[in-house]
Amino acid sequence: MTALRHMATLSEESADGEFGTRCQRVFPLSLIDDETLGAMGCWLEPGRQTEPDQHDQREMVFVTGGRGTLVSGAESTPLRAGDVVFIEKNHEHVVHCTGEQLTWFSVYWPLKETR
């Protein structure tokens, strides 16, 4: 087994429609037997919002470009490149793109794919 592996190159062209946006999954991959997390890159067009999402996983969102807002119930936080936001499990959330295209990378755990 090698210590380093190139897992993916994030590209909107490689993304599929999910959650009302375009996402490219990086994990889970069949290369690793004991995966405990999932990850994906996402792209959201100006003026759009994701579908409401709620899952039994914690999620960390790393904003890489654009501007937006993340809303969960009565709470909201602005998003811009460089922001890192934690979402607790079992809390419905929606991402709104309020400026130029919003891009982010999400890591979620434990890995429990239900979709």
TrEMBL record:
Keywords: Metal-binding. Transmembrane segments: none annotated. It holds the Pfam family Cupin_2. It comes from the Bacteria. Residues 44-108 form the Cupin type-2 domain. InterPro entries: Cupin_2 (IPR013096), GPI/OXD (IPR051610), RmlC-like_jellyroll (IPR014710), RmlC_Cupin_sf (IPR011051). This is Cupin domain-containing protein. It comes from Actinoplanes hulinensis.
